[in-house]
């Protein structure tokens, strides 16, 4: 059994309460989210490239 098996799974984060936010704060929040989405997509592309390279190494002909 791994130690990871004993760790509780991460709970899904709760949505942020948008009601008290002004229009400007909401616009800034959207920009922050877009930036985070771009960062995640870039990370996914790196991982896909890494997996593709590894698959090419172990591919049998």
UniProtKB/TrEMBL annotation:
User: What positions belong to coiled-coil segments?
Assistant: 23-50
Locate the compositionally biased regions of type Basic and acidic residues.
1-10
InterPro entries for this protein: DUF1192
Tell me which domain of life the UniProt entry assigns to the organism this sequence originates from.
Bacteria
Give the record's keywords alphabetically: Coiled coil
Chain residue ranges for the region called Disordered: 1-20
Task: Please tell me whether the keyword Coiled coil is annotated for this protein.
Answer: yes
Q: Under what name is this protein listed?
A: DUF1192 domain-containing protein
Organism name: Dongia sedimenti
């Amino acid at each position: 059994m791994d130690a990871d098996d004993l760790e509780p799974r991460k709970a899904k984060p709760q949505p942020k309460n948008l009601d008290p936010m002004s229009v400007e704060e909401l616009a800034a929040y959207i920009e922050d989210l877009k930036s985070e989405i771009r960062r995640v997509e870039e990370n996914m592309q790196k991982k896909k490239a890494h997996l593709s390279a590894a698959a090419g190494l172990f591919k049998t002909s």
